[in-house]
Design a protein that fits this description.
heterodimer, A: 534 residues, mainly alpha, 3 domains, four-stranded antiparallel β-sheet, two-stranded antiparallel sheet, 69% helix, B: 446 residues, alpha/beta, Rossmann fold, 2 domains, seven-stranded mixed β-sheet, six-stranded mixed β-sheet, globular, ABC_urea-bd_UrtA (chain B), Urea ABC transporter substrate-binding protein (chain B), TAT_signal (chain B), Peripla_BP_I (chain B)
Chain lengths: 534, 446
């Protein structure tokens, strides 16, 4: 043990002696990190990244985390909480210097830092880290990193990482201007990139294809590769668009299912439906805040806890509204419309008074952020979750309506209220529960929407018109119609959007729906039969 | 102006406007002159024309409070011309025609010596004929699309050449990433369309090819950004550094930035430069995924100068809330109000014609350094800052224009207005003077 330590010490001393001659230059690189010129900072980062200074890694990391500070005398310090360390030496500072200022970052510096970090991580022990570093370098394909990449490639054992590194090397080579006799090398690189595919490769190859400096053979090869990749991207683009349509449709579906009960099944024109969604979103926020304050460990799943809470809160509120207001207005649609509209304003103002008029920040947990790549598509996780959630909600609702006594009674009451009452069904109770169910569903929609949209007192207003459109277009009183209409409107919108733009797509969809309703006033799937109120 | 902040979806708007105009009928009140010990005599009335209800209330209420603070401060300093100042606050309730009505009331019933107000361009356009007819004075504090120069309006916010053009210059520069391809993304109304027209012409003059400029408009309150973000991503994968210039309306920004983050586009890949995202908007966002995204303003709360620190402290004391943020339009009111005070002092009267003439050339230090000067075209000289969003919801300034930029009422990058200037000093005294034909186009100033 003792001998080992001595050996280490000796080695360190020897290394220190080796480093000394270059010390002056490196000292400047440390000082340059605080330069007001971003170009000088970038250069300093490159110098440090390439150096073997033991403090370089920690210093660069601190810079990225904004914990690198400069003192008025130009010395650089790393500050983590209360401890202050001099960056150059790694020694704790004797006293916390006065007037420390954080060293500022901009995107140029961040890019340089990410490149430097990726270069170091290429030799990390875990293959996953190496792969991530290779991905980062691939996106940047900085010519300065070529030597690092080639070195990593020479020692790499893992097949996946090797493939990726070959692509990185190809991209890096092609990122440089062509040398006179490098045609064979560049052709090989073009082929490697063509095999990799994807938008980044396309970008590099497209630049080559129209570069005059390139040899004709390389240009030709690049041209062909670009058209192959384009074909590939287009095919995946169709799939990607279909997913966007499904996702948009699922949001519409969620917003409309509650209304499909209150308006579709019960016939109540509920203008406060959107506000129920808004309250659902606020409940999500409150649940998150409560969990963060009490059990921080559960914070990532707060959104799951919010689902039943929002359903119960909004459902209970719905029952109160039905008992306190709606039940006096059955059969008087105009008055219902005005009363629920007034109610929506009251609810908005109440929320505004309690929580303030500005947006509140509902957190998206890490497991709902980001995306997964499926072939050439990016599936964003929050949208995927909403898609699944919408399916579950619709399925659950179907089960309730078809397989439970409440569902049976609801259907009976809506089909023939007098007959149902004569059969012994307590219709007022069913009305209240049905309205509560609709409001609860709106609350669930609010939980979902809080992950993709602003949460403010005005949230509901942006969904109410779309919700009515979906229910009317699908056929009032038919859940399958609501599903079909939501998906049709979602898909239609997303098919039109890339070609004619978001504004025109919205107008076109509205016009199409109006024309359709003109010809089929009862929507896509009208409810038939004698029981339906004329 | 651009930031029709909160939730101006058209359908929502009609509804809210209707509801809130009822509330606005009784909404006029007067702030008592603040313990005016020294000043005495007939008070000088200052009109405040900002929406206190409806969709714009979020943004405009702050400006009303800022004005009350400035007026109280002036009264503490002894008022103006030895007379106390009296704030007359009216509520135009985010209802554009009501803006014109309230402006008429402020000028002809309350005899306001100056009016500070408006936020959206459409509200300004609505009151402009009233101010010209009754020869009033309006201070308009918000950055806007330009192409207007009225004798009766002082534009204390940024013109396009004081925000949009320097912002694009930064993106083109090496520090800004040296962008070669630009996606101009905006909400579909007058400010983004005019700004993007100016920017497209400017970029072409800078050698950016037509094919490297993508323009996209979305409706108010857009919340589904999937398609557009993936279009931006595809547009950005052509092998050239790409940047987004966003004139997206304040509230639609949250889902836009969320979608960018989820699709894995970071500020280092494709930076987004926003003209309508300020400290107030960030207050409702989780800014960790936005770090590095950019905004261009003439003022940032984070800029560390003694004047700004004092202003922020005064604001916290006045609102009794240490968390209230300050923002760019507040600074514009600060400058405009102090300039008006100077002009009235110099003219020795509140007579509108004399004050309007006295305003030109008045100088007032900015909160963030440099001195604002009222130019003959009723715009200011301003510093332009580029800030990057930090994870604490503030901006860190990464670039500023080397010198103050004088505001241009008419853009040289729009073919129809490239020869126009505004010059209300004698002998030209014209808001739209054609320097090529040496004629004044006359009364049509917008």
């Amino acid at each position: 043990m003792h001998r080992l330590r001595t050996t280490c010490l000796l080695a360190a001393l020897w290394l220190g002696a080796m480093v000394l001659p270059g010390h002056g230059a490196r000292a400047d690189a440390f000082a340059d990190l605080a330069s007001p010129q971003f170009a000088a900072v970038t250069a300093a980062i490159s110098t440090l990244a390439a150096s073997d200074d033991p403090q370089a890694g920690a210093t660069l990391q601190a810079l990225g985390e904004r914990s690198l500070f400069v003192a008025p005398d130009g010395n650089i310090y790393i500050r983590h909480g209360g401890s202050v360390v001099e960056a150059r030496t790694g020694q704790p500072a004797d006293s916390v210097p006065e007037g420390l200022k954080p060293i500022r970052l901009n995107n140029r510096i961040r890019t340089a830092l990410a490149g430097a970090q990726a270069g170091r991580e290429l030799l990390a022990p875990q293959p996953a880290t190496r792969l991530r570093a290779a991905d980062a370098l691939y996106a940047r394909h900085d010519p300065a990193m070529l030597a690092v990449v080639e070195h990593a490639l020479a020692v790499e054992k893992d097949a996946t990482v090797r493939t990726r590194l070959t692509e990185v090397r190809a991209a890096t080579i092609l990122g440089q201007p062509p040398a006179p006799d490098a045609t064979a090398l560049r052709l090989e690189a073009v082929r490697a990139l063509a095999a990799a595919g994807g938008p980044e490769a396309r970008g590099i190859l497209a630049t080559l294809a129209c570069s005059d400096a390139e040899a004709p053979a390389v240009r030709h090869e690049a041209q062909q590769a670009v058209s192959r990749i384009d074909w590939h991207l287009r095919a995946w683009g169709v799939a990607q668009n279909a997913f966007y349509g499904l996702s948009y449709g699922s949001v519409l579906l969620l917003a409309a299912t509650g209304l499909a009960i209150t308006f579709g099944v019960m016939g109540v024109i509920n203008m406060a439906h959107g506000e129920m969604m808004m309250i659902g979103a606020y409940v999500t926020w409150m649940v998150q805040q409560a969990i963060r304050a009490t059990v921080p460990a559960l914070e990532p799943v707060a959104i799951l806890v919010a689902i039943p809470v929002a359903f119960v809160v909004c459902g209970a509120l719905g029952i109160v509204i039905e008992r306190g207001l709606i039940r006096f207005l059955y059969g008087r649609p105009l008055e219902t419309l005005l009363a629920t509209w007034g109610l929506s304003l009251i609810l908005q103002q109440a929320v505004r008074s309690i929580f303030g008029p500005t947006n509140i920040a509902v957190q998206t947990p890490a497991w709902l952020s980001g995306s997964v790549a499926v072939g050439g598509m990016d599936i964003t996780l929050n949208r995927l979750a909403i898609l699944v959630f919408a399916g579950l909600v619709l399925g659950g609702l179907m089960l309730v309506l078809r397989r439970t006594p409440l569902g049976l009674q609801m259907r009976a009451v809506t089909q023939n209220r007098r007959m149902a009452a004569l059969m012994g069904i307590r219709t007022p109770r069913v009305d209240a529960l049905a309205f509560g169910l609709g409001a609860g569903l709106a609350g669930l929609a609010g939980v979902a929407v809080s992950q993709i949209d602003n949460v403010s007192p005005n949230l509901g207003q942006s969904y109410i018109i779309d919700s009515f459109m979906v229910v009317v277009f699908g056929g009032v009183g038919n859940l399958w119609g609501t599903l079909a209409a939501a998906l049709a409107l979602g898909m239609g919108g997303k098919v039109l959007e890339p070609t004619i733009g978001a504004v025109s797509a919205k107008i076109a969809i509205l016009v199409l729906v109006i024309l359709y309703i003109q010809r089929h006033p009862r929507g896509m799937f009208p409810v038939r039969g004698r029981g339906v109120e004329s | 102006m651009p930031v029709t902040l909160p939730h101006l979806s058209r359908r929502a708007f009609g509804r809210l406007a209707l509801a809130s105009s009822a509330a606005a009928v009784g909404g006029m009140w007067r702030a008592a002159p603040a313990r005016a010990a020294a000043p005495a005599g007939e008070p000088i009335r200052v009109g405040i024309l900002h929406s206190l209800s409806g969709t714009m209330a979020i943004s405009e209420t702050t400006l009303k409070d800022a004005m009350l603070m400035l007026i109280a401060e002036q009264n503490r300093k002894g008022g103006l011309l030895g007379r106390p100042l009296e704030a007359v606050v009216v509520d135009p309730a985010s209802n554009w025609p009501l803006f014109a009505e309230k402006a008429r009331q402020l000028l002809s019933v309350d005899r306001a010596s100056a009016v500070f107000g408006c936020w959206t361009s459409v509200s300004r356009k609505s009151v402009l004929p009233v101010f010209e007819e009754l020869n009033g004075i309006l201070f308009y504090p918000v950055q806007y699309e330009g192409q207007e120069c009225s004798r009766n309006i002082f534009y204390t916010g940024a013109a396009p050449n004081q925000q949009a053009i320097p912002a694009v210059d930064y993106l083109l520069s090496e520090d800004g990433g040296g962008a070669k391809r630009f996606a101009l993304v905006g909400t579909d109304y007058v400010y983004p369309r005019t700004t993007n027209q100016i920017l497209a012409n400017y970029l072409k003059a800078k050698g950016i090819a037509e094919a490297d400029i993508m323009v996209n408009y979305t409706p108010f309150g857009q919340s589904d950004w999937q398609t557009i973000v993936s279009q931006i991503k595809a547009f950005g994968s052509a092998g050239k550094k790409t940047a987004v210039v966003s004139t997206i309306n304040g509230d639609a920004n949250v889902p836009f930035y969320k979608e960018l983050g989820n699709q894995g586009i970071s500020a280092t890949d494709i930076p987004v430069m926003a003209f309508s995202v300020g400290e107030e908007e960030l207050a409702g966002m989780d800014t960790a995924p936005l770090v590095g995204q950019l905004a261009a303003w003439n003022y940032f709360e984070s800029i560390d100068t003694p004047a700004n620190t004092a202003f922020i402290r005064q604001w916290h004391d006045f609102t009794k809330n240490p968390k209230r943020t300050t923002n760019d339009p507040m600074e514009a009111h600060y400058i405009g109000f102090n300039m008006w005070v100077q002009a009235v002092t110099r003219a020795g009267t509140t007579d509108h014609d004399k004050v309007i003439d006295a305003m030109i050339g008045i100088r007032q230090p900015n909160l963030t350094g440099g001195v604002a000067e009222m130019l003959p075209d009723h715009h200011l000289t301003k510093p332009v800052y580029i800030g990057e969003i930090q994870d604490d919801g503030q901006f860190s300034v990464v670039w500023k224009t080397p010198a103050l930029v004088p505001g241009q009422a008419w853009s040289p990058w729009v073919p129809e207005t490239k020869d126009l200037i505004g010059d209300w000093s004698k002998p030209i005294a014209c808001g739209n003077y054609n320097t090529a034909t040496k004629t004044c186009l006359g009364h049509r100033h917008a």
